[in-house]
Specification:
It is a single chain. Helices cover 41% and strands 14% of the residues. By secondary structure, the protein is an alpha/beta fold. The protein folds into two domains: 255 residues, Type I PLP-dependent aspartate aminotransferase-like (Major domain) (Aspartate Aminotransferase, domain 2), CATH 3.40.640; 137 residues, Alpha-Beta Complex (Aspartate Aminotransferase, domain 1), CATH 3.90.1150.10. It has a seven-stranded mixed sheet with strand order 1-7-6-5-4-2-3, with helices on both faces. Helix 2 runs antiparallel to helix 4, helix 4 runs parallel beside helix 11 and helix 5 packs across helix 10. The chain is globular. It binds pyridoxal-5'-phosphate.
């Protein structure tokens, strides 16, 4: 057969392919029906040719599908495509972003190990480490994201894992991933980066020296707010540990969600580029508004780590934080004056969203902890979607108009 018919041929043809080509084609294996689109294998189990074949597959002596908690062809296509995009030896898909983090810790850490976590990670990630991981005898300490000397100082002989998000949410702080990878290496620990805000279209932590990349695929990988999912990418040695955990414990990705994510990946770079162009324009515009005290966006020359961001990321992402003079009252009135923006804490959607972090995503922190984290009452977070830039600006203008009516 010619051209792309044969699965083996298809994969070998992609060896030197660029990002967009991998995003559209990597991992696909054509079935006997010669389908052009990726097949959705909505099946929980598989049949065997004979009793002996079943025994061999169960024993791992023969190649063959067993059960969808173990493997699923649609999920496998998604995993192979993600591995190709992140430049990883292997990727392992999970039921959500949180189960990707859980699977990483459960697979790679044991009681008595020490884990270092950035202070500015996703809220549920803090709860996972604080309330659950600690319960199983893993020690957890927190470090300020950008403070390389602080990471070094916090390392102990039993430190096994360093965990960060860069840039942080919603204040867009960064860590120099290559430098932090050096700290982890010296320590004999693994560096895991939650790359959800960037996706491999903007940042490739493995190429910078990180060991593990984690995603909530729920966000930009889906890109249209439909499905929950997650994925972990890294070296085969560690990923095989995750495979074992997921097969046993079960927070695996649904094949339907994997199929939706495959469609999302096809347009990933184009979408991220459009998100970033609008976010940059809005960040620059917001910085000029008299009611705005400060804008948090790594694409602005005023951002203290702008040079690092330009080195480490291809573009600066779609999440813009901005602080209004006038505290909570001004922030709430601003939000309530908008008509187009969705009032929700989600992000990574074609629809733009606006959030008041102090009373939502960071609402469970004490006032002191919130102040220490820099989440003030006047802070708003804009997750820029794919609507027309002019319409987004018009909507934000409604917020400013209400404040100016005073
Ligand atoms: C949303 C999010 C998660 C959790 O992902 P779910 O898919 O909602 O479980 C983890 N990390 C970051 C940075 C996120 O934004």
């Amino acid at each position: 057969m010619s051209n792309q018919w044969d699965a083996g041929r298809l994969d070998s043809d992609l060896q030197d392919a660029g990002f967009d080509t991998l995003a559209v084609r990597a991992g696909q294996r054509r079935g006997p029906e010669a389908e052009h689109g990726e097949a959705l294998y909505l099946t929980s189990s598989y049949v065997f040719r004979s009793a002996a074949d079943a025994a061999a597959c169960f024993a791992g002596e023969a190649e063959g599908n067993v059960y969808s908690r173990y493997m699923n062809p649609t999920v496998r296509t998604f995993e192979q495509r993600m591995a190709a995009l992140e430049g990883a030896e292997q990727a392992v898909a999970t039921a959500s972003g949180m189960s990707a983090i859980l699977a990483t810790v459960m697979s790679l850490c044991s009681a008595g190990d020490h884990v270092l976590v950035s202070r500015s990670v996703f809220g549920a990630t803090v709860t996972l480490f604080e309330k659950y991981v600690k319960r199983f005898g893993v020690q957890v300490d927190y470090v300020t994201l950008a403070d390389i000397a602080g990471w070094k100082a916090a390392c102990k002989p039993n430190t096994r894992l360093l965990f960060v998000e860069s840039p942080s949410n919603p204040l867009a702080e960064l860590v120099d991933i290559a430098e932090l990878a050096g700290v982890a290496r010296e320590q004999g620990a693994l560096l895991a980066v939650d790359n959800c805000f960037c996706t491999p279209a903007l940042q490739k932590p493995l190429a910078l020296g990180a060991d593990i990349v984690i995603h909530s695929a729920t966000k930009y990988i889906d890109g249209q707010g439909r499905c929950l999912g997650g994925v972990v990418c890294g070296r085969r040695e560690q990923m095989q540990e995750l495979v074992g955990f997921l097969r046993t414990a079960g927070p695996t990705l649904s094949p339907f969600n994997a199929w939706v994510f495959l469609k999302g990946l096809e347009t990933l770079r184009l979408r991220m580029q459009a998100h970033c162009v609008s976010a940059q324009a809005l960040a620059e515009w917001l910085e000029q508004q008299p009611e705005v005290e400060r804008v948090y966006y790594a694409g602005l020359p005023s951002h203290p780590q702008h040079a690092l961001a330009a080195r480490q990321m291809r573009a600066f992402g779609a999440v813009v934080g901005f602080e209004l003079a006038g505290g909570r009252e001004a922030a709430w009135r601003f939000i309530d004056a908008t008509r187009l923006l969705s009032i929700t804490a989600n992000l990574g959607d074609a629809k733009s969203t606006i959030t008041h972090p102090a009373t939502t995503t960071h609402g469970r922190l004490s006032i002191e902890a919130r102040e220490a984290a820099g989440i003030r009452e006047g802070l708003l977070r804009l997750a820029v979607g794919l609507e027309e830039l002019d319409d987004l600006q018009t909507d934000l203008q409604r917020g400013f108009a209400v404040l100016r009516a005073d």
